[in-house]
Amino acid sequence: MTNLTDKKSAYSAKVEAQLEQLNGKIDELKAQATQKKAELSAQYYDQLEDLYAKRDDTHTKLQDLKASSSEAWEDLREGFEHAWSELTRSFERASKNFS
């Protein structure tokens, strides 16, 4: 069981750091959006709101993953990884639009 506990802990720490890093990048996009022309701002803010919602969902799934039992961990990890993929794809699309 220690091996799974170590695996859970290492995985959680890794993805938590990645989530925090992406959160900083989302904040950078927000700063860029404020510099765009007024007519485009609404579009950028809609995309940012979508990113923040997906980030919050991903964070919630990470917290669930960290608190999960050994039996539920694999299933919850799959759910987290799906949410993470959605978040990173949305971030890539938004960052292309902001550039």
Describe this structure in words.
There is one protein chain. The protein has 99 residues and is mainly alpha-helical. Helices cover 94% and strands 0% of the residues. It has a single domain, classed as Four Helix Bundle (Hemerythrin (Met), subunit A) (Up-down Bundle), CATH 1.20.120. It is built from three helices and no strands. The model has no long low-confidence stretch (mean pLDDT 89).
Order of helices and strands: HHH
Helix content estimate: over 70%
Q: How far do the termini sit from each other?
A: 47 Å
CATH architecture: Up-down Bundle
What top-tier CATH class fits best?
Mainly Alpha
Instruction: List how many beta strands DSSP finds.
Output: 0
The proportion of residues in beta strands is: under 5%
Domain count:
1
- Examine the coordinates and then state which fold CATH places here, giving the name of the CATH topology: Four Helix Bundle (Hemerythrin (Met), subunit A)
Largest sheet: none
Low-pLDDT stretches are none
Name the average pLDDT: 89
Structural class: mainly alpha
> How much is the radius of gyration in Å?
16 Å
Count of helical segments? 3
Shape: elongated
